[in-house]
## 1
Amino acid sequence: MAIKDFGKDLKSSLHDAVDTVKAKAKEVELPDIKEAGEKTSERIKSLFNKTDGDKPYNEAAVPTQTITSISTRSAIKIIYFLMAADGEIYHGEEEKFDLIGKELDPDFSDSKEQIIGECQGALDKVIDPEDYYDALQDGAEEALLSSQKTEGTSISPKHLVWNLLSVAYSDEKYNDTERRFLKYIVRKLNIDKAVFLEMESSMLTLMDIERELAWIKTTNRPYLTVEAMVNQLADRKNVISESVLDLISL
């Protein structure tokens, strides 16, 4: 997901704007944003404490060699493997894949079919059904290894992980297999787990805001009241997006 470059001075002005909106909307029976945030935090804690069969996330699993950049072609392959992780590629995922592919590679329309063919070739190596995840992981590892020998455009590891999260959440079905695959990529790229969890939390919050925005726009509340709440949520979304941009740039 591409993130717009919001101004660094936006945060302070937004706080004032949000306070004003809250004062005007006190009597409106709309979803409690604070309560929604608390629910989101609880969901995140529950998600993080899941046991998904993946190996422990510890320093022993971190590679000794740090990958500082990934070729755009390899990044697109890894995104495809994530989409295929649960055995079915959904329409929302495919749309996001095309969007990110075009942003990363101006020639994506010409290379898309070949990239998908190479990914399918890796998945065709499955001997038994239980080998499917191993084939995904092998394909991703090969993409990372080949990336180190490729010249041309590239993206940072954290940028790749954010794009992976964007695709994983695009169908609102971020499942255990997708998260297991993402954690594998995070380990291979030697990204600090605290950074990954913060990115995951930010994406979850952004999705909650999107759902709340969609709900508010369907209510029969007065236009000015709805507009005030929509602006408040949009401001929160902007602040979170700016925070993610800063995190990716570090």
Note: Residues 223-249 form the longest helix (27 residues).
## 2
Amino acid sequence: MAVGQNQRTRKNDSMLTKTGKTRLGSLNLAQLTKLLESNTKPKEKGKIMRAIAKHAPQVA
């Protein structure tokens, strides 16, 4: 993770923000569900569930 490192030694990872949080925008539905199963933090689970809701087709 990027937390605790300075900018000079930090590897540039497009899936992490500057503070080490994961980016969810470019993940597909399968990747999001896998991330939801492996995650334990309630705040991040809510974030992932909202991202899944965006990907799911709207049923009338």
Note: The chain has a mean pLDDT of 80.
## 3
Amino acid sequence: MSKRLGGKTCTGLYFVDDEREKAVALRVHNACMNTLVVSIYCLILVVFVLMGSGWGLTVMSFGNIIADNLWR
């Protein structure tokens, strides 16, 4: 890569050479991943609550909602 494109070598997630910048990149990566995981857990919890309550959300209606949103 470095010969053909003139880019730096990278190891893992880090595209920087300084240890402080690596630490910052790791903190940002961890914060983003934690936010993503918590958001997915909250979405799953909301779906299960709606399916278990009197809202009448079934697997078929949930699939239709997702399909309608994807087609728009």
Note: The CA atoms of residues 16 and 48 lie 42 Å apart.
